[in-house]
Design a protein that fits this description.
405 residues, alpha+beta, Immunoglobulin-like, Sulfite Oxidase, Chain A, domain 2, 2 domains, 5-stranded antiparallel beta sheet, 5-stranded mixed beta sheet, 10 helices, 21 strands, binds the ligand Nc1nc2c(c(=O)[nH]1)N[C@H]1C(S)=C(S)[C@@H](COP(=O)(O)O)O[C@H]1N2, binds molybdenum atom
């Protein structure tokens, strides 16, 4: 999400809360009755949980997306955390963000060009890509702008992506020794102005040669067993497991190897995190860093009442996760149990915690993820967030509010 569009910025956080029709249905009895009728073991499997229950709605609910945001990015199809029961997000429920147009590409006409500092410049068709070795990855893709605005809290989803690894293709093409970066271009384009120069620019992002050669990076043509849907980049997109959404270039049309750093909009002006950082000697410096690998993050998705007991459920992602801890009101941090995704480094984890000693009234629930390297999801008051001046990479601890009858 990037409101370069000024309107989006201005209206981003002032919208009043409103309930969507889907929220209304779940709060009403009909959906619950329907869920109760489903085979309970099937539901438990889907939920990664022991049994079904009644969702107690949070007091804090994201407001509707402002009209300007919908105008700029189209229907974002944001995830509703309270309804999160499926570990794999179905394609029609997967959020989507596009900064330019959404090009329609005929599969039989699709061509992926390799240009620049490769010994053998070449072009691959979709059929040629599909004939190459197939590789799958379950990867949670989150927009770096997620949680950057009150209304933007569902810019995330998990899919099983399939395609062919990029590294062997680059190796076959033969990178010249002076190669520094690999630039990925989409077929979508927009008008950009830099220093009074107006130009047509395709969506583009670059990776260093070593990042581009990582074995998990895919030229992806399949999402959850189906051809990549149009809005998700049909017929081919880049998948960079472990990185924020913006690195995952859709409608991939050209891959260019260069001996310079690429300075397109999404590397230098958008998706750049500006912070005030304090150096060891106590001096404050302003930093501007390109959004890259995802940061550790978690959220409490819902509280379920199971007749006599309450269960807190949530998700954690953004790099390999070691554990998730949860705190109710100002109580101690308690370790949650990870129920799904333990084996997958690039996929979100689902976690649950039995809420012991529940009292009636209003409560807050906060979660924090801890990465395998010991990185802790920062509190909202941490200087890495309070001294962050752009909204990307908002991975602070999220506090949910709930009222127990
Ligand atoms: N070609 C192209 N690729 C793109 C974008 C875009 O605007 N054009 N948006 C990026 C951003 S910011 C995000 S968050 C993800 C969203 O992927 P999705 O729409 O499949 O969910 O796509 C990324 N890839
Ligand atoms: Mo994004």
């Amino acid at each position: 999400m990037t409101p370069t569009n000024k309107q989006t910025n201005d209206t981003g956080i002032h919208e009043g809360a409103s309930l969507s029709r889907r929220d209304f249905l779940v709060r009403g009895g009909s959906t619950l009755a329907l869920l109760a009728m489903m085979d309970s073991s099937l539901f438990a499997q889907m939920a990664g949980a022991a049994d079904d229950g009644e969702v107690i709605p949070f007091i804090d609910r994201p407001p509707a997306a402002p009209e300007a945001a919908v105008k700029a990015y189209g229907e974002l199809n944001r995830l509703d955390w309270q309804k999160l029961t499926q570990w794999i997000t179905p394609n029609d429920q997967f959020f989507t963000v596009s900064h330019y147009n959404r090009p329609v590409i005929k599969p039989e006409e699709y061509k992926l060009e390799f240009t620049g500092l490769v010994k053998n410049q070449k072009t691959l068709t979709l059929a040629e890509l599909k004939r190459r070795p197939r590789q799958e990855v379950i990867f949670t893709l989150e927009c770096a702008g997620n949680h950057g605005f009150e209304w933007f809290t569902g810019g995330i989803g998990t899919a099983k992506w399939a395609g062919t690894p990029l590294a062997p293709i680059l190796q076959e093409a033969g990178l010249k020794p002076e190669s520094l970066e690999v630039v990925f271009f989409g077929a979508d384009a927009g008008d950009e102005e830099v220093r009074n120069v107006n130009m047509r620019q395709e969506f583009s992002r670059s990776l260093s040669v070593s990042d581009a050669l990582r074995p998990e990076v895919l030229l992806c043509y399949e999402m959850n067993g189906e051809p990549l849907p149009h809005e998700h980049g049909f017929p081919v997109r880049l998948i960079v497991p472990g990185w924020y959404g913006v690195a995952n270039v859709k409608w991939l049309s050209r891959i260019d190897v260069t001996d310079r750093r690429w300075a397109g909009r999404f590397m230098t002006r958008d998706y750049v995190t500006i912070r005030e950082e304090v150096l060891a000697e106590g001096k404050t410096v302003w930093t501007q860093k390109v959004v890259g690998p995802a940061r550790v993050k978690s959220i409490t998705a819902r509280v379920v009442f199971l007749g006599g007991r309450y269960r807190i459920e949530g998700a954690a992602w953004g790099g390999p996760i070691d554990r998730v801890e949860v705190r109710v009101d100002n109580g101690p941090w308690v370790s949650a149990t990870i129920t799904r995704g333990k084996e997958q480094d690039f996929a979100w984890k689902f976690w649950t915690l039995d809420w012991i000693g529940v009292t009636s009234g209003e409560h807050t629930i906060t979660s924090r993820a801890v990465g395998r390297q010991g990185t802790v999801q920062p509190s909202a008051e941490d200087p890495s967030l309070t001294k962050k001046h752009t909204y990307w990479e908002s991975n602070g601890q999220i506090t949910r509010r709930i009222r127990i009858a």
